[in-house]
Amino acid sequence: MIKAGIVGGTGYAAGELLRILLNHPETEIQFIFSTSKAGEPVASVHRDLLGETDLHFSHELDSDIDVLFLCMGHGNSVEFLDSHPVDDSTRIIDLSRDFRLAPDQTYNDRRFTYGLPELQKEAVKNADNVANPGCFATAIQLALYPLANSSNLNEDVHIHGITGSTGAGSSMRETTHFSWRDSNVSIYKPLRHQHIGEVRQKIEQLDPNFDRELNFIPVRGDFTRGIFISAYTQSDLSAEQARELFKDYYQDSPFVHLSDEPIHLKQAVNTNKDLLHVAKEDGKLLITSIIDNLLKGASGQAVQNMNLMFDLDESAGLYLKPSHF
After folding, report:
1. pLDDT tens for each residue of 221-239
2. What is residue 101's DSSP assignment?
3. Rounded to an integer, what distance in angstroms lies between the CA atom of residue 144 and that of residue 128?
4. Which residues of the chain have pLDDT under 70?
5. Of 135, 269, 278, 312, which residue is the catalytic one?
6. In angstroms, rounded to a whole number, what is the distance separating the alpha carbons of residues 28 and 11?
7. CA-to-CA distance for 155 and 242, rounded, in angstroms?
8. Are 224 and 165 in contact (CB under 8 A)?
9. 135 is catalytic
10. Domains of the chain
């Protein structure tokens, strides 16, 4: 059994991680570290786990673990590791953005591998530490990789992405209140979202000659979870040629599926899937990409990475069912 520890156990992503690991056939949770909730039952925070676990939050770290999941806010992983040294034999999967971008992928003697399996599965298999990708970055990259890999991303890319309220985390702020979010839509960080640097770095890994603009408008949606990406770019490829590129690129990716019909968000919510649809309109390729931001965009992908790192079936513990209503 893989002995797992979780740091920052009270947020939405941590709740989903707990749900997956509690039902994972090859893992055992040793502790859930939280200074603010130490001693309290996990189910007192993650109410959906009532009856699923008797675990309590802990203020102590157990060094006898195989993997440590860091589920903290951006910037806090470095701070935590500075004050809480982790045994060299313990693998780390970090869900923040602290180690995603070069040159910040090395911490002390630890090298963090970017953990998008659809980009570099073999590298993840051989990694001791993984930087889990961002949620928007995951959905956008999966929409663009087959084009970049085949040197068919030659024009500016225009991306529209809408995300649910859980993408902002569990801490309260004006734009996460129900009265503000309900029946409301707004943009934020237009053309300067932090995930675009992450996307560009990995596209250039596939196509070093890529030098076009990635124009991204992120949108706050009036729903709880999920990300809906629509990206378009001028292309000489036909729709069928593009679809064949996507099918070929993702043929060994168990969670990425190309749909012949237009897709909608509920098809992916509560699963670890990325669903894609490719169409051609007026000389432009239109790619739609949808994920659950808390699963394929965070905790589900973290467990997918863990499975690869420990030589398990990539899909172990991740056959989650979508909501149809």
Report:
1. 998 899 999 999 999 999 9
2. S
3. 27
4. 167-181, 320-325
5. 135
6. 20
7. 15
8. yes
9. yes
10. 2-131+296-309 (3.40.50.720), 135-293 (3.30.360.10)
